[in-house]
């Protein structure tokens, strides 16, 4: 009998320990789940941010499409213009509502023009400047005007081809 009791005692201890362990597991699981929920909250926030960047990427890809980039009319300042490096084009608005587009490839040595200011489209490499009105050379060493492109206005969107 004593042997049996001595065997039973360790079993009871084990069972108690098991219950304790199970309780600990439950407690850990509870902590784990709340921790996971918190952890999931941050990645969700990050993924929301990524999702926010996603449409911008999509916008880039759609506007960067070689089929004919769509550009908002409001992006182009009146009396100025904007270079779209990804599409290698320059879109200008010499006078209100009058849009022009040109290749952004400088006719001197092929650099990409980088900015539009003071009525000219400027090349950063050797200082050539082109008219925002017709792409003609305003300052050398460029030998020829920028190549003209066709601008189509549809509502508030410009398409260059
Ligand atoms: Fe543009 Fe020389 S490549 S000025």
Automatic annotation (TrEMBL):
Record's compositionally biased regions (Low complexity)? 37-54
* Function summary: Iron-sulfur subunit of the cytochrome bc1 complex, an essential component of the respiratory electron transport chain required for ATP synthesis. The bc1 complex catalyzes the oxidation of menaquinol and the reduction of cytochrome c in the respiratory chain. The bc1 complex operates through a Q-cycle mechanism that couples electron transfer to generation of the proton gradient that drives ATP synthesis.
What is this protein's record name? Cytochrome bc1 complex Rieske iron-sulfur subunit
From which residue to which does any coiled coil extend? none
Residue ranges, compositional bias (Gly residues): 55-67
**InterPro entries the UniProt entry points to:** Rieske_2Fe-2S, Rieske_2Fe-2S_sf, Rieske_Fe-S_prot, Rieske_Fe-S_prot_C, TAT_signal
| Residues covered by the Rieske domain | 68-160
State one Pfam family annotation.
Rieske
Q: Where is this region: Disordered?
A: 37-78
Q: Where is the signal peptide?
A: 1-29
The cofactor named in the record is:
[2Fe-2S] cluster
Q: Which UniProt keywords apply?
A: 2Fe-2S, Disulfide bond, Iron, Iron-sulfur, Metal-binding, Signal
Q: Which PANTHER family match?
A: CYTOCHROME B-C1 COMPLEX SUBUNIT RIESKE, MITOCHONDRIAL (PTHR10134)
